[in-house]
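Lab notebook, page 48
Experiment: co-folding of the full assembly
Goal: obtain a model of how the components sit together before planning crosslinking
Operator: M.T.
Materials (sequences as entered):
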Amino acid sequence: MPSPLILVNLKSYKEGTGSRAHMIAQAAELVAKESGVTIGIAPTYIDLHPIAHHFAIPVYAQHVDGVEPGAHTGHITADALRAAGAAGSLVNHSERRLTLADIDASIQALQAQKLSAVVCTNNEAASAAAAALAPEYVAIEPPELIGSGVSVSKANPEIIKRSVATVHAVNPKVRVLTGAGIQSGECVRIAVDLGTDGVLLASSVVKAKDPALVLRDLVSKL
Amino acid sequence: MPSPLILVNLKSYKEGTGSRAHMIAQAAELVAKESGVTIGIAPTYIDLHPIAHHFAIPVYAQHVDGVEPGAHTGHITADALRAAGAAGSLVNHSERRLTLADIDASIQALQAQKLSAVVCTNNEAASAAAAALAPEYVAIEPPELIGSGVSVSKANPEIIKRSVATVHAVNPKVRVLTGAGIQSGECVRIAVDLGTDGVLLASSVVKAKDPALVLRDLVSKL
Amino acid sequence: MPSPLILVNLKSYKEGTGSRAHMIAQAAELVAKESGVTIGIAPTYIDLHPIAHHFAIPVYAQHVDGVEPGAHTGHITADALRAAGAAGSLVNHSERRLTLADIDASIQALQAQKLSAVVCTNNEAASAAAAALAPEYVAIEPPELIGSGVSVSKANPEIIKRSVATVHAVNPKVRVLTGAGIQSGECVRIAVDLGTDGVLLASSVVKAKDPALVLRDLVSKL
Amino acid sequence: MPSPLILVNLKSYKEGTGSRAHMIAQAAELVAKESGVTIGIAPTYIDLHPIAHHFAIPVYAQHVDGVEPGAHTGHITADALRAAGAAGSLVNHSERRLTLADIDASIQALQAQKLSAVVCTNNEAASAAAAALAPEYVAIEPPELIGSGVSVSKANPEIIKRSVATVHAVNPKVRVLTGAGIQSGECVRIAVDLGTDGVLLASSVVKAKDPALVLRDLVSKL
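Observation: model returned without errors.
Model output:
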């Protein structure tokens, strides 16, 4: 069984761009090495290339357009992500929703480049739908928990359990991330015990004074 | 086993609005009565209410917004569709793509009003994803056939067969429509033989001089 | 100088659809006749046709797609609006934002049918931009006032004054509506004194137990 | 009077990413130095930072989101562009259309970082609207000429002349680029003679075997 994935979305946070992105990547690399847990980060497009080359951690884009290289202005292709050293991309994050056809196209484009797709979803039905598209991961973000400060594992463990069951009923190969409500190592432990393969989180790491400290706590119960 | 559904999308065609919409509805009612086949039409929002009240055929909206009644300008709610006498709505048509979250919300909103959702999809994977959301129908529109004049049944029967199998593997209760490439009664026959529960079509009926004639041909081999 | 326009957006409010839409239209017709003030309403697409035919008040759509009749599913054309008896349409309401190219196309499509465009904007610069597209009306909706219960005329008269000046500097023929923060006849009076040609409002009329009473108050100081 | 601007949009072309982006930047720097003409390039987000740091030419993003740094996934902020060394950004390119409100927000966000906004528009009215938002540049892309191989200057000089006049009537400080139909140095010469301040172009440089050769031709008649 592979290590759970702790995936840190740096979003467009001031505290997650430029030198801070490098500092968080360094902390992730350090704690991953100490703990044996896989820690990935999803920086902005601009920080992606240097971070993917300087650190031995999986680096994800925050979004990808499911188009071939060509006459597309302001787009980001899977081809460009692979060339930049990415391991994969978030797809359909709640802050960057896509049409069903575009989610499918993004997954196809990523997989054609041997990159992983992490499709974000907002409930059990959407998670099952995403699973039918056969991405590597589905990350469940119940809207009532996004940025709420409430732990998904404690507040609503049933939605996680049911989503894992539904996703696996559709496609048992798709791994599931708990995508909201992760505050601490105990949350991560509960998320894994509920059957998910890791967590997707953002501000608690990105805005931390000492990201390594937070990351160490997050992996502490695994 | 219920009758196949012949669903005619009137789009925004000049030949499908106003008095022409009524004429097509009348033809649909007539041919449905003669043949025993269910024929539905999807007129514009403006024609929906009068047609649903004057004709004994199922009337579908072309789009619905998955929101509750409230402060939404330029939206169309499932609640309003039910009050207007609709039987359901198209969702995610190729000319009106929605996010995955909105497709799910539209289906939920329709079903809460006891209306049917006909979710349009562009390939096998998207059809499976749509099926996971448990709409009443999935209508498969392979992009290479939309408006092409080529019959889906003849040109690419495999995509239909595989999509039916994939949809039913995810949710056996979801019915499948062949949503492109339907030119004649023979096409409808082949579509049904390939395992679909009917067809979604548009211009060949809407632009016909005599829609009843075309509809009679479409149901002739059932 | 023409009468100011009181334009009531019924949105998708439960209290603004079906029989309630007719009741509000009747109240608008009554108060318009009593006062000599022009009162228009913008009902849902479904209510638009019957209301435009039963009442002698200008009826607006809440949105229009700037496309020709044709293969557009779930769209609403200016052609269909004209056939339904509409006087015009809202364009780019804050709940239905459009691209710049689509705003322009919508205005062109409306004007080709001799219908009026009421383009909603969120600030002074956007109002000037909208004016450059030469619609009949620009309705200014400062986001901080939408649904706030604060009167725009009292809270922020300067933004209205400056927007009127900016709009007229770009195109003196474009009329301006105060599109948020209208609670009472006094607000309407101030809006007009600030140089606008009327108001666009919604919930205070739509949700009123007695819409005629509210409308009488709104026109009372003109 | 400043030099005209030759702005090369590298889009997502395979021939405009990675080492090819660097090669084109080098050619631009060389020809700019030889000729004294300002040549800018708009690479993908991923190539933007290294190119802005290695070459003494203005580098533009292909798109920017008009939001502050924060919880925005898959977005690109003006703040991040400035940190990466960009000189500005394209806004509302025909392949990446924005709402009017977002165009305005993008311009504001860029200017708050002392970056230049190049707003693309599709016709005379939209150009006037864009000018009202006071960007540094408006780039006119008549849709009938995009990628057509027809020179805008020859085919339709009137639309350019009228657009320049309309833009300057709204805001005389806004500079205008001819944004489609540029094939050669003669086209650039005509574009400038028609009153524009430069050109925006893409494939003819990006797909050239020898971009320096093409760039030399483009500046040859200035």
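Interpretation: Chains D and B do not touch (no CB pair under 8 Å).
Next step: discuss with group before ordering constructs.
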